[in-house]
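2024-03-11 09:14:02 DEBUG pipeline.ingest accepted 1 chain
2024-03-11 09:14:02 DEBUG pipeline.ingest length=497
2024-03-11 09:14:03 DEBUG pipeline.predict start
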Amino acid sequence: MQPLVAPATTISDRLINNGRMTATEDAAPDRTGLDTGARSPGVSYQDLLDADTHPVPDVLRLESAKYFGSDDVPIERYTTREWHRREVDQMWSKVWQFACREEHIPEAGDYIIYDIAELSFLVVRQDDGSIKAYPNACLHRGRLLKEYDGHCSEIRCAFHGFAWKLDGDLQDIPAAWDFPHVDQRPDDFTLPECSVDTWAGFVFLNPDPKAAPLADHLGDLMEQFEVWNLGDRFVEGHVSRVINANWKIAQEAFCEAYHVNATHPQILTYLGDINSQVDVFENCSRVITPGGTPSPLLGENDLTENDMARGMMDVRVDHESPISIEEGQTARAVLSAVARERWRPIAGDSVDQMSDSEMMDSIDYTAFPNFHPWGAFNRIVYRFRPNGDDHRSAIMECFLLSPFSGERPPPATETKLGANDPWTSAPELGMLAKVFEQDVFNMAKVQKGLETTRKPGATFSNYQESKIRWLHTLLGEWVNDDVPVSVGTGSKARDNS
């Protein structure tokens, strides 16, 4: 599984190495001889960049297709409790994962609860501004220390009143005269710490206190997002929904655009679904799906630029379009200009430096195992998690990160939807809600189908679904089939696995 693009130190170096351009060339690059794997016939994503009305950032000129083989993925990864337990024991207990935004805990004493599977953690802002995280369990008799996000001056258990300072040191034991043995075991009664680090306003947690640095885990993602400062955003919306399917089924529905033709046929007129560019780097992957260009699956068609514009703006057939695309113009360029003016009052004249692609396209990055930030002004960040200790249930979340001017607005309160609550009951999602409804329509049926089929594996394409293959390749590196599965929960079970 070698990359088709030679590794390099910087984005500029990689552009040179993959034949895109030299560091000083401004002309459209020559792609002859560049082999990045299978592609759909028709205009490529790089062809669209060549026609952009604004300078295109180097990061979008990178191409890094990888071939992961054509083997099926065993369906046990989705359908069995044994595999779920392996994920908890060997991955969720030891991997870096997005817990919250820094703005969720701005003041000393602010805390959030982060749950993953049956595990629960407290993420607490310290007096010195740093952030610590602890297993959310009292060291007396194990009760959850906190049940809701909030603010505290101390961490006190509601059962018998044991209390700790924000930094995890034991502070108070009611009737301490009856616990002389606790004084003899101070290390056992200091809240154990998890690894915590931040990037671009995101707070990451790793339950393993000896974890390698977050920067090693994110790697390429950090460099590639330097052009889009997600730290300078605020949480304008946060919506979660319970999904009746394994968390990977939910996640993988958002890791490729191949499903658009059957699941979202209404957007084929303006979305280059199967002409998406899929890149896999050392630490992250991405799918870039262009807007303002029709799906190649439509074949020869008589779509006009105005037809594409109407579709992108979701204009009803009996309504006049608010925008007319004149002869010689393209919907992609005109609507990009409209988007720049939309963001100008907030982002200022920096929007003039943004390419049409950054205004129009879905630039969907993924860091293993479940963190999905989108580039440019897409605003979207996805997170997918098991819903408690249930391999048939997941929590899907969509954060909307928006630029702002002046003082940072407070983060939006999370809108929590149950499995039967429609996405459309969260108006902050806008047009996304209708698209999400179409996606969710498939998920429980995929779960049921995988539990019904006699075929032992799920089949993925070599290129369009290569991000999914990449995720499963990494999952296989984390999770060892030969390690005994814990029958219960807790650190003892995981330490023995």
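2024-03-11 09:14:41 DEBUG pipeline.report The CA atoms of residues 86 and 287 lie 28 Å apart.
2024-03-11 09:14:41 DEBUG pipeline.predict end
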